[in-house]
Amino acid sequence: MKELVLALDLEDRRNALKIAENLSDIVDKFKVNYPLILSAGVRIISEISELKPVIADLKIADVPHIATKIAEIAFRNDAKAVIIHGFAGSDMMRAVLNVAKRYDCEVYAVTELSSEGGREFMGKFSVEIAKLAKESGCHGLIAPATRIEKLKEIREAIGDMKILCPGIGAQGGSLDALKFADGIIVGRSVYMADNPRETAKELRNLVQTYSTRP
Ligand code: BMP
After folding, report:
1. CA of residue 57 to ligand 1 center, whole Å
2. Site to substitute for ligand 1 among 9, 175, 184, most atoms within 8 A of C-beta
3. Staple partner for 83: which of 57, 154, 182, 197, CB 3.0–4.6 Å?
4. Each residue of 22-71: pLDDT tens digit?
């Protein structure tokens, strides 16, 4: 079954929790990023994880011993997965994977950002980054829904490794990303909708239709 991950990019703890509580029966996972963690504190990961598994989107990109510390803090606070930047290289990937293993958690590597700037540098190496992440043992990739051709290329390069795609809706990407991905990450289109619950339900149903296609 394809996954629907909600990006909870809110800065207000109560608001984030309210939305998470309202949508936890519809989405598969929550993703939290710096806006929420820096505003509400790292314990917010733990609070949200009581509702559904949390991916800590810290986009870790540092020397291995620091990357290790960052991942450890996320896992200690009940994150089920962390996101790293693939461009930081295999030594950092392995270091973070070692910590993840101790907590029985997962590591996702960004191949190239879904924004325009993602083309300038990361896009030139994203297929290699994807291959390196697979060789290093990462559990999944974060690849852009905004560039379907690149997504297809990455899928062909990495076989059945898991891919989650951000960039749908507000960034212009379409659900057709699900032809090559195992799930989508959506933020604003849901949490800024007039009726986030109805919007999330509609999205859930659409994701489902891609899950059942041959
Ligand atoms: P939105 O659906 O509101 O555009 O949010 C997308 C989410 O996915 C944000 O949390 C962002 O940090 C994340 N993301 C992204 O947009 N592009 C990437 O390449 C990688 C991401 O993690």
Report:
1. 9
2. 9
3. 57
4. 999 999 999 999 999 999 999 999 999 999 999 999 999 999 999 999 99
- Verify whether residue 59 is a known catalytic residue: yes
Nearest-angstrom CA–CA distance, 79 and 93: 17
From the CA of 154, how far away is ligand 1's center (Å)? 18
Pick from 105, 47, 119, 60: which is nearest to 87 by CA?
A: 60
Distance from the alpha carbon of residue 33 to the mean position of ligand 1, in angstroms: 9
Domain map (residue ranges) of the chain:
3-211
Strand 140-142 versus strand 81-85 pairing type: unpaired
Contact 46, 73 (CB under 8 A): no
Instruction: Report CA-CA distances (Å) from 189 to 15, 68, 192.
Output: 16, 33, 6
Ligand 1, atom 8, residue with closest C-alpha? 166
